[in-house]
Each structure stands twice: as C-alpha cells, then as structure tokens.
Amino acid sequence: MTNDHTVHVTDVLSFLNCRQQWDFSSHLRQYLERKTPVIPFFVGKGVHDALDVKYERGADPAAFFHQYAQDELVALHRTEGELWDTELDKLKDGIDLAKNMLWHYELWQRYDTSTNSDQNLKFIATELPDDTPLMIPAPPDFAGSEEWGVGFGLRLDGVVQRTTDNTYWVFETKTCRSIGERKTMLANDLQAAMYCWAAEQMLGVTISGVIYNLMRKKIPSIPSQLNATISTPHGNLPTFSVAKSTDTTFEVYKHILDGLADKRASERGGEATVRDQLRNILYDHHRARLEDLWAQGNTYFERYELVKSRPQIRRALHTVWHAAQDMLDPNVPIYPRPGGLQCNYCHFRAPCLTIDNGGDPSRILEEEYQPRRPWTPSVEGL
Ligand code: SF4
User: Fold this and answer.
1) pLDDT for residue 377 is more than 90
2) Residue 341 CA, ligand 1 centroid: distance in Å
3) Of 349, 355, 356, 365, which is best to mutate to test ligand 1, by the most ligand atoms within 8 angstroms of its C-beta?
4) What's the pLDDT at 146?
5) In the predicted model, what is the mean pLDDT of residues 231-246?
6) Which among 198, 275, 204, 269 is positioned nearest to 237, based on CA atoms?
7) Which of 142, 160, 275, 293 could hold 250 in an S-S bridge, CB 3.0 to 4.6 Å?
C-alpha cells in the first residue's frame, strides 16, 4: 500500500468490478502482475504501444513491435527460464497476430478517406504528461475539507483536431474480439468521459467526445492462388480465389495483386509502365471481387465516434470521486465479486480460488506473480 492519493480510471474500474482483483493489481494495494504474459493482454498492449509511437513520434509501429516482443521474450527468459513448448507456441502466435494486425492497419489507413481517417486528423497531443495529477472536483453537495482531495492520473493515447470541422477529440485505441460487441460497451464508458474532462483541463479546448480506434484481434485471410492463369504481354500470371467465404478485405486483396504485378515487372527490368499494365490486367480480371470487398468496407477496423455530454462527464467525475474515497481508505473491505465471464479472464483466478478455499495465497503470489512494471514505451534503436 502507498500514501499515493492519485487514482487512475482503469484502477477505478477494477475496484468497481471486483475488489479482490483490485487488491491484487492496484498501485494502491499489492500492485502485482503475472510473470508469464496473458496473451490477449500482451497483444493488446503491444499493438497499442506501437500505435502510440507511430502517432507520437512518427516511428515505424512494426519495428517498435518487433523490439517490444524481443524485449518481452528476453525478460521472460530471465525471470522464468525456459518456457514450456506450449507456452512458447502461444506467445509466438500472439506475436504473429499483433504483427499482422499492425501490417493490415497500415494498409487500411493507406486507402481510408472517411471523416475520421488519419488524413483528416491532426494529432496535437499524445501521451499527455501525468506527472502532475489533476484534482477531481468534489461533488457540489459535499461539505468536507480539502483533505478529501483526489488526484486523477492518466495516460491518454492522444487528442486530435479534426481538420474538416476543427473539432477536438480524445483518440483512444482499443483492441477487441468483436467490434460490434465492443461498441455496445462504450455508451457509458467511464474512461472516455474522464479523459474528455482531463483533456479539456490540460489543453484548454472544448473536447467533443472520443474517436475510438477499434481493432479486431484477427488476421484477414490471404486469398488462395488458383491453378488457372491469365495471359499478359509479359507472360502468364496466376489468378486468385474470388470465393465470398474468404474473410478478407479490399486492402489485402489489392495488396496481393499489386505484389504479384510488382514482382513480375521487376523480373522484366522494373519499368513502372510494365507494373501499371500488369496491375490493370489483374484488377480487370478480379474486378467483381474487388468491388464487392470495397462496398463491404473493412470489417477489421473502425473509427467510432462517440460524443460525450456535459451531464455524462459530471456523473463520471462524481463516480470516480466517490469510488476514490473508498479506494484510498486503507481499511476498505476486500471481497470477491465472482462472475462467469470476468473470472474466466481474470489474471488472479488461482490466488482468488486459494482464498476461497480458506488457503493462504502468498506462495502462489510469490511464485507466479511479480511487481508490476511501469509503462515504458521505448523507441531506442528505431
Ligand atoms: S477470479 Fe473472479 S472473483 Fe476472483 S479476483 Fe478474479 S474476478 Fe474477482
């Protein structure tokens, strides 16, 4: 436990969700994390941090992620020694997933011209400093003294100015299993309302709401190459499946065709006119599928805009302030809040079950958990 009087919104959410889980993980309490990475969390964090360095410093997200994954593997080897093959395989699958998500994301933005695409957003602040916490105002009906003051610490992905209408928005990346499912969870998102309030305090501009950068944790399928070929002035070229059951996107399909044309043009001396001619032949042959995918839109990513009203922001401030009063009380009662889904995904299931059975979790905490490491996005070597 600490004398820190600062709360973070993820910590508040954890407290409201399950106090037992919060007690294990919070910087105000035991501040622990699993030694072996939880794969969905590992992927989400890696992708998130890679996009932070892209928008904050213009760095290559793929190169960042490569370094991040290497560092994680080295750190894991140092603390855990050799991993079991199954653990290593899961980790490698996670690394592969994240790399491909970032590759696909870059392709997507290359063609995205929608209102909230990168080309219409000016990233005016990313990783706003959190070394001086903002003081959360007490509710108007509160009659206590300043001793009850609560600091709010945060790590914003960024704030953007939309150049088409000069409005300001918090920009927040979320990785998820299903974009539709995630969107339904965002309507009363406490984090979003608090970030809008915090960004207004720090930047002195009106924030309209949040633009969520939603990313599905899935790799699109690569269309399979067929035996049938098409004749071109530069030799026959393979063709690709146009099956609608292939879960892919316009960007990926076009990228495959472009890559094939580029390769053949390079074999023929690398002339741009040859490349363009081959691309056009391939586009014509696969036009129906390309048009179909274009009309369908990219189902792997979405920029989802959510306006935050003044009442929503006020209510969020009151919720966080009241929760913080309990969180900062060293004698706050700790108890579990079991629930099927949340317990299945909980990082602290094993020590929680030990307590449930009347046992002492200290041994398992010592063997399988470590003090949480602070967030340190490194771009060294990029
Ligand atoms: S397993 Fe369930 S009840 Fe236990 S700490 Fe995790 S979320 Fe809470």
Assistant:
1) no
2) 10
3) 349
4) 55
5) 93
6) 275
7) 293
